[in-house]
Amino acid sequence: MKSNVYSQTVTVVGGGLAGSEAAWQLATKGIHVLLYEMRPLSLTPAHQTGKFAELVCSNSLGADALTSPGGILKAEMRKMKSLIMDCADHSSVPAGNALAVDREIFADLVTEKISTHPLISVERKNCISIPEGPSIIATGPLTSPVFSQELSSLTGGEYLYFFDAVAPVILLESLDMDKAFWGGRYGRGNDYLNCPMNEDEYGVFLEALVSAQVAPRHEFERDLRYFEGCLPIEIIASRGKDTLRFGPLKPVGLPDPSTGREAFAVVQLRQDNREGTLYNMVGFQTNLKWGEQERVLRMIPALAHAEFARLGVMHRNIYVNAPMVLDQYLRLKARTDVFLAGQITGVEGYMESSAMGLVAGLNMAAFLMDRDMLRWPRETAIGSLMNYLSDADPESFRPMNVNLGILPKLEMKIRKRPERCQAVAERASAALDCFISSLD
Asked: Which tens digits make up the pLDDT trace of 86-130?
């Protein structure tokens, strides 16, 4: 380590999951951190305290078994000595195969660790501009309007988003291809996977859709207005029996090759990643509860056994178009001493956000030490998230959580999902062990 590293201070803006993790990683490398957190002087509509890493939604951090992508990510973060994982493990409560925490104990643990570290200084202040010098921005989905404007000016306003309307994404290999066909409307190309329904199937699907439970809105999201071009699928369906058939489920120009005739309704799927393992449901942005989404969407014949890499969401969010704005290390292309961390990078989920805090902290340390920044193995969950952020199509970029679809395929096909995840986990663990050894 060069001696001048100790003379530099990194400013971290935001004391949530990602900001706390980034600050911790820097401090454990011997680097001074100035951590700005505006709470409790200025509370967001969702937060109630000034504690670091306060969880404002569920107390569940997701699946923790190696038979799930979320469990693979957590195992990797434990190996990387993540602060968030350590505090979560020490505040866990019974939740089956998931990792859930006592949110008060969890936030208290993170706050104590951050506040008592000799290399971390905390300043309770509403940061209204991008700091000078090396900085990590981890302001989260509720970034203040003033700071958002600053970030917009730096990244380019067209690459900063404030509302997230996401359609479900499905693993291609989980679809029933005997009940679907490839083709474009009016024979133009072969890029879409079409899932036909007859009148009876459509009727059952429609009834389930309009009666399904909608996810509750947070108080700070209740004033959101839908755009007509981005309506939830359940809102369109509620306007009449045939509104979907004249909209996203329009069958015109899509004859089924098995019958030579147009179906009563057609759901179209479009490729969502370069590998062609993930397909999104065209026009299916939705605000249904996640369990309801799985139940209702599996009523579409070709989707009866669908595995969902991402379920639909419609909520307030702020994130950048990562492939356009960030380099492969989470560093702003417009300013190379500023890294982004957490949900603002374009990941979705508590642990994914924490992982990006870990990555940003370690890369900032390497940057200050004039070392090569980290290239995470593609086989790992962290590496696959990083690959998605840098290589996704900028035209269709949306936040992503960890899932099998973004991890490289296994050499041999394993049909059962838990066994497939276990094999992916073993491969990821071996790759991460080699990666960690290379850092020594």
From this structure: 999 999 987 778 898 888 899 999 999 999 999 999 999 888 889
Which residues, at least 6 apart from 437, have a Cβ–Cβ distance to it below 8 Å? none
* Cα–Cα dist 268/261, whole Å: 16
The residues pairing with 35 across neighbouring beta strands, listed in sequence order, are: 12, 122
Q: Give CA–CA dist 155/63, Å, rounded.
A: 34
pTM: 0.76
Backbone φ and ψ of 253, nearest 5°: 80, 15
Using DSSP bridges, classify how beta strands 32-37 and 9-13 pair: parallel, antiparallel or unpaired: parallel
Residue-by-residue DSSP string for 158-176: GGEEEEEEE--EEEGGGS-
Is pLDDT at 225 greater than 60 in this prediction?
A: no
CB-based contacts of 264, cutoff 8 Å, min separation 6:
196, 197, 198, 199, 201, 202, 245, 251
Mean pLDDT of the 292-296 span: 96
Q: What domains does the chain contain, in order, with CATH numbers?
A: 3-165+315-439 (3.50.50.60), 169-311 (2.40.30)
Q: d(Cα 192, Cα 373) in Å, to the nearest integer?
A: 39
DSSP string, 116-169: H-TTEEEEE----SPPSSSEEE---TT--HHHHHHHHHHH-GGGEEEEEEE--E
Terminal CA-to-CA distance of the chain, rounded, Å? 13
